[in-house]
Amino acid sequence: AVQAADRETILKHAQYLAAHPGVKVRVEGNADERGSSEYNLALGQRRAENTKRALVLGGAEAKQIETISYGEEKPRASGHDEASWSQNRRADINYGAQ
Q: Which of 2, 52, 56, 83, by CA, is between 20 and 30 Å from 23?
């Protein structure tokens, strides 16, 4: 599920997409390094799909949104502690997608 703290940001993205139907985004799901590669890919995909669902509920069209999982392959933080892991558990909305 989408974190409560992120809902307002996602709603703003959804409203932008609704107002600009020609714009496409890629939602990239990520995970921290704990767990197997397969588990983290599946977890990243669930994060991406949950974010897509929230964007659509906010007014975006599903066809504007592509999802992908990078699992643990694209960490934002390189540490091996909770502070780093929490930064790596995320979904990124990429407007460079075509």
A: 2
- The range of the structural domain enclosing residue 18 comes to 4-89
- Asked, for residue 94, whether it belongs to a domain, the answer is no
Q: Over the stretch 52-65, which tens digit does the pLDDT of each residue have?
A: 999 999 999 999 99
> Domain of 22: which CATH number?
3.30.1330.60
Going from the C-alpha of 70 to that of each of 21, 41, 43, 76, the distances in angstroms are 26, 6, 10, 12
What pLDDT does 3 receive?
86
Backbone φ and ψ of 27, nearest 5°: -95, 120
- Around 56, how many Cα atoms within 13 Å sit in the side-chain half-sphere? 14
